[in-house]
Amino acid sequence: MNDKTKGKELHDKLLKKDRNVWSVLPFGDEQGVFAFAEEYKKFLNQGKTERKAAQFMVRLAEESGFQPLEELIASGQTLAPGTKVYSLNRGKALIMAVIGRQPLEKGMNIIGAHLDAPRLDLKPNPLYEAEGLAWFKTHYYGGIKKYQWVTIPLALHGVIIKGDGTKIEVTIGEDEQDPVLIISDLLPHLAQEQMEKKMTEAITGEGLNLLIGSIPLREEDLKEKVKLAILEKLHGEYGIVEEDFISAELEAVPAGKARDVGLDRGIIGAYGQDDRVCSYAALRAILETGTPELTALGLFADKEETGSAGNTGMQSAFLENFVAEVIALTSGNYNELICRRALAGSRALSADVNAALDPNYEGVMEKMNASRLGGGVVLTKYTGSRGKSATSDANAEFVAYVRQLFNKKGIPWQTGELGAVDKGGGGTIAMFMANLGMDVLDCGVALLSMHAPMELASKGDVFVLYKGYKAFFQE
């Protein structure tokens, strides 16, 4: 080594190499990236709620040979290696598994994502009339910037369970011929006081009311004639009465389809990419998994945006119950100790997104430890806030395992923290998975404008995330 080449050789040998994902894709792979993105956009368009995302996934699962676990339990069928099973929890959460050659006691390779996304939920008593207009009251779900949700077209998705138990599915605002709903805002001419307020106060939670109607019934002696006209329309369309709203789950989400962003079409702009981007990548990966050594399990939870509570959230017993049933069907006899060993011996990726460095808002990031759009898969050792509060903080040994796997398989990756120290933070389902004893590392893609009505993801990142998940399942 001479003095002229020493520096370059040391550079190549010792320094960590951060590359843009597009620059390391094998020649010709761009076509595959764009084709994958088109399929992903279909999922985003059809899966705008956790229920609809789960329905989409179940349909693809069954087309790929996955069978409902409940039917296999009823028939007493033994689960041999290569058997594909799934279980749907109340239409909102889903587990899919491909049984491996090794007994479950040896552990599993688990990828866990979440299907819910920030939105506006209708209140139990939502419908009212004010100033000759009909409105729906909402309660926002998850962390949002409330000002982003005013004056944009919103669609209504969800279910209504009528008094007689009949289930009605609702979708309004997605077809080009549909009406949309909207939250009004002040004109700038009269908004001086509003614009002097903090951004967190200018639009209030109780001010996120959806405008839904303006034409009254033509009877002079009636009160709330616009509200009654809306109820008449809803009764004619769906057969519901006002009391049925109490047993309904109706979500207002941004209307419209996922779009390509940028003149080179390298970015996807869409609602709900946190965390449906990781959900779709994990779905495609497990659909394409053959008979693995260790059982491959894809977990798609609900309620992450509100703390993972509830019987469809990650803190529920859904995963443990599923594993227990699979043990009973693979071994012929359930043993709690085997179940505990299976969970504690597993390796898991908490499939969730990180925040990409935005050059318009650099101050909230520490650049040396920030992820970039187009930088590949993001490995996040810990999330949380302040002093790493509410995080599992992955062990160095498991981070090394994932790093080595991705390097071996040629998966471009980067690291990232969720913001600079003391600037905020957030959490994932990783800590609840870690509570079961398994090794867990957060692993997803970086997004710009996370939790906004339109989030931004690199098509290249999405593609290599799918490749990375597929490698993890098959390892």
Task: Kindly report the spatial arrangement of strands forming the biggest sheet.
Answer: 1-2-3-13-4-14-20-16-18
| Share of residues in strands | 15-25%
CATH topology of the largest domain: Aminopeptidase
Number of helices: 14
Return the domain count: 2
Gap from first CA to last CA: 38 Å
Oligomer: single chain
- Average of the residue pLDDT scores: 95
Helix fraction bin = 25-40%
- Which term fits the overall shape? globular
What class, by secondary structure content? alpha/beta
Architecture of the largest domain, according to CATH?
3-Layer(aba) Sandwich
CATH class of the largest domain equals Alpha Beta
Note the main sheet: 9 strands, mixed
Q: Which radius of gyration do the C-alpha atoms yield? A: 24 Å
Structure overview:
The protein has 475 residues and is an alpha/beta fold. It has two domains: 18-117 and 271-474, Zn peptidases (Aminopeptidase), CATH 3.40.630.10; 119-254, Roll (Aminopeptidase i, Domain 2), CATH 2.30.250. Helix content is 32%, strand content 23%. The protein has helices at 3-14, 21-24, 29-46, 50-63, 69-75, 192-195, 199-202, 225-238, 273-287, 318-331, 336-344, 396-409, 430-434, 459-474; strands at residues 67-68, 84-89, 93-98, 108-114, 119-130, 133-141, 154-161, 167-172, 210-213, 248-254, 259-261, 267-270, 295-301, 347-350, 354-355, 377-380, 384-385, 413-415, 425-426, 439-444, 446-447, 455-458. It has a nine-stranded mixed beta sheet with strand order 1-2-3-13-4-14-20-16-18, with helices on both faces. A hairpin with a 5-residue loop joins strand 7 (154-161) and strand 8 (167-172). It is globular. The mean pLDDT is 95.
